[in-house]
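dumping this here so i dont lose it
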């Protein structure tokens, strides 16, 4: 399937891998893909065209991924305020210091089942639109169909129906 990925789609996957590494994530999930899509390129332009603030979206995805790192509820039961600890670590050691304390994955980072499903859906979207290559548009259409990353889009006040319509429009190819 990767042989059908355009340069843009490959960059999205590389960006997703970089986000996963930054978060010390053992696997690349759909939120990492969404962060890669929001980073730059035509997919990010499509998001902005439908009123999504890609900086806000990236921040929300970042916070959502970071929330997976430590169990805030379990720490709260012990009397530890994770947000306060994280904020203090950020002030003392820089943004994301608490996450960086873990070990960075090296080499290949595998995809979660959901991320694999998203990439399969991107192929289906390309076929449905009668296009030979998979680009960021197709990946974003697949993300919109999913659950976890779509929640981040909704939290960023994305109009998913409008986004989907814009991505499916023929002129979206050149956007």
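and the seq i came up w/
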């Amino acid at each position: 399937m990767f042989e059908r990925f355009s340069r843009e789609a490959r960059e999205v996957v590389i960006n997703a891998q970089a986000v996963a590494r930054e978060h010390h994530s053992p696997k690349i999930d759909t939120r990492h893909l969404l962060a890669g899509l929001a980073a730059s390129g035509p997919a990010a332009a499509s998001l902005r065209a439908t009123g999504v603030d890609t900086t806000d979206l990236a921040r929300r995805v970042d916070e959502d991924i970071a929330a997976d790192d430590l169990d805030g509820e379990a720490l709260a039961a012990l009397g530890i305020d994770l947000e306060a600890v994280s904020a203090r670590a950020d002030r003392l050691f820089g943004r994301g210091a608490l996450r960086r304390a873990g070990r960075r994955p090296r080499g290949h980072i595998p995809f979660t089942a959901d991320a694999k499903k998203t990439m399969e859906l991107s192929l289906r979207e390309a076929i449905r639109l009668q296009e030979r290559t998979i680009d960021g548009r197709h990946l974003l259409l697949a993300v919109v169909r999913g659950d976890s990353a779509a929640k981040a889009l909704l939290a960023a006040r994305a109009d998913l129906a409008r986004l989907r319509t814009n991505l499916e429009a023929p002129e979206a190819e050149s956007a």
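The chain has a mean pLDDT of 84.
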